[in-house]
Each structure stands twice: as C-alpha cells, then as structure tokens.
Amino acid sequence: MLTDVVKGLPQFYTQVIGSLPRPKVVRELLSRRDSMEAGEYRARMDEMITFAIRLQETAGLDVVSDGEWRRVQYTDEFLDRIGGFPLARHYEHAGEKKVHRVSTEKIQASDPVFVEDAKFLRAQTDRVTKFALPSPFLVGIRYWHPDYSTDAYPTVLHLMEDLSDVLGREARALAEAGIDIIQLDDPAMTYFCDRALMSAGETHDDRLRQQWDIETQMPEAVGLINRIFEGVKAMTHLHCCHSVYKRSSDVTGDYKPILPRLSEAKIDQVNLEFAYQGTGDASDLDVLPDHLRVGMGVVDVRGERIQTVEEIAAIGAAGAKRIDAKRIALNPDCGFAPDSGEPPSIDEAFEKLCNLAAAAQRLRQSAA
C-alpha cells in the first residue's frame, strides 16, 4: 500500500536493506544481554540504535532502519522471540560444521515480538522508516526438517502457513506502530536463480540439499506473502538476495527465473542485487512485472573496495534505460551484516552509504 508518506519519496530514493555492521561496543553489549538488568540493557541499546539512525541520516538516506542492532542474527532473533526453534540440528555450511535452529514445537508467540523496537525507531527519526522480517518460505526451507519437525508440523507447508499468520500479525502491528515500509527477506527464493543448484544440486550448504520444484514452490511462496500483507497499511517490499556470509554469496545467478513469477505478488516493490558479480543484470528488469517497483542493489556489501559515485550511478542509470526511473529506488545489494559477526566495519558502511546518496542525487539531476 502506497501511503502519502512513501508517495512523497523522490525518484531514485535511497534506502538500506536492513542491517548495518555492529561496532565492537554493540557486539559486546549483545553478548551481555542475558546477564545485564533488563532496563539497563534496553537503555544502553537504545543509545546504540539512536547512533545507527543518525549515521544513516548523516549519510543522506531517504529511508532508514534501526540497523537491526538488537538482533544477533536477523532470522534467528525472530525465531528465538516466537519460540519453538531450539539449537538442535547439525549441518555443514561453507566447510564449517555448525549447530542450527530447527522447528521442533508449535510456535509459541501470541503477540507481536518486534513492536517495541519499531516504536523506538519511529520515535527517533523524521525520515521514512523500514523494518524487515524473514519470509515464511525462507524459514521453511532452512528450519523445517523431517527428522525434527513432523510432530509439530507434518509438512513444511504446515509450518509456513502457521508462520504466515504470525508474520501477518507482526506486519500489521509494525504498520500500526508507524513503520512506513515493511520488508520480507527471502534469500531462499533466490535459490531458484542458481542454475547449478537447480540442475545438479551443487551446494556448499547441507540445508539446500533437497527437492526443488519452482512450479509448485514459487506459487506457494507468493501466496504466503500475499496472506501476510493482506490489509497492511504500509508500503510492502520483498528482498531477494543471494545471501551474505563472510563477504561471499550462497548462490549465483540472475533473477530471470523468478521475476515473472511475482506477477501475482501483492507487494509494492522487490529489492534485488545488481552490484556484486554473479547476481542481477539490468536486463532482468525487462521481465519485472509491471505493477512492481524495484530497489536496485547498486552498492556491493561483500567487497571491501569502496565504489565511486560514478560506478554506483552507472548501475542505476542502466536500470533507468529499461524501466521508468520513477519505479527505481537505490540500495545496497543486501544488509551489511545479517549476522552480528559479519566482517564489514561501520566506517566502511558509512562511506558506501554516503556514495549511494551522492549517486542518487546525481541521477536526479541528470533526469531533471
């Protein structure tokens, strides 16, 4: 839903995807949250969040988040708050053996879990605000497993349907708290873009070794998105990224396999990656459904190199040759640090965001 607030955003408006790198002081604070008195922890974290917001404002962004600094990891934080996902499943990812959360019980939460965080963000800025949630398809793909989950949810679709009700309640509460843009993060949808994964099952992540069926799974995923956003009075975004882990991606491939399948998605905008090698290409916009706007990822969050303003603007300009510039927003490819331990520094992120804002201003002047 395009409210009056978001209708006032400029052409090539700038936004973050969600997360910012956590400075060491924030990581230290996160490590103490179970041992500190709750009121003291909240007050100190509020100070950190205010800094994250001011950083984005100073960089010149039109749309800001809270940096997701209250979250140790962007999906796991949500799962911890709603309950039913203990650390129990062993798997291998990028050559590392890990223990992963997995669905073992019915979801326990009956009230929204992020609304207080959202209210704080809204109260601290006069900019357009964004808050991100994980998609049910992502959670289903990564966190349902037949060896652990069937007593609570006989099939992955049962879990995803329950999640869609929980996330719908969450999205409505965020909108009522004054959040202007609500985004669903769905890197799992981008797995369909990886031709090697789809054809031969080639992957470095045990969780992706499963049966894939785009003809069935994409309509299910879109239907769940529509169910979540029904009646939500905020601009709605879907973010399809290639994942970020230690400056690398989980998968590769352009977006042509999935964009036409979003024709029935009742969302306002899809945020994609175009800056990092092996992700989107401007020609993908030729198959973007007509009703959708696009957030073009024009800033590479994986590499340490700082792109020039000219390089960033060139990616946005290539998109404007394909679709009306009024449908284009500009953003980093992905969140800078979906996990609190991701390597980019806050100074690196700030410099990249400053160049993003400068590139947007240059594109607006060129279009004038």
Detailed description of the structure:
This protein has eleven helices and nine strands. It has a seven-stranded parallel sheet. It has a single domain, classed as TIM Barrel, CATH 3.20.20. Helix 6 (136-143) packs antiparallel against helix 7 (156-176). The chain has 368 residues and is of the alpha/beta class.
Query: Taking all residues together, what is the mean pLDDT?
Result: 95
CATH topology: TIM Barrel
Measured on Cα atoms, how large is the radius of gyration?
19 Å
Please give the count of helices.
11
Number of strands: 9
What is the molecular shape? globular
Pick out the low-confidence regions. none
Report the order of strands and helices. Answer: HHHEHEEHEHHEHHEEEHEH
Helical residues, percent: 25-40%
How many independent structural domains? 1
Describe the main β-sheet briefly: 7 strands, parallel
What structural category arises from helix and sheet content?
Answer: alpha/beta
List the helices and strands and how they pair.
Layout: H1 4-7, H2 24-31, H3 38-59, E1 63-64, H4 74-82, E2 87-93, E3 96-101, H5 115-123, E4 128-134, H6 136-143, H7 156-176, E5 181-185, H8 195-200, H9 214-229, E6 235-239, E7 269-273, E8 293-299, H10 309-320, E9 328-332, H11 346-367
Provide a compact summary of the structure.
The chain is an alpha/beta fold and 368 residues long. It contains eleven helices and nine strands. The chain is globular, with a radius of gyration of 19 Å.
What would the keywords be for this entry?
two-stranded antiparallel ribbon; 368 residues; TIM Barrel; 37% helix
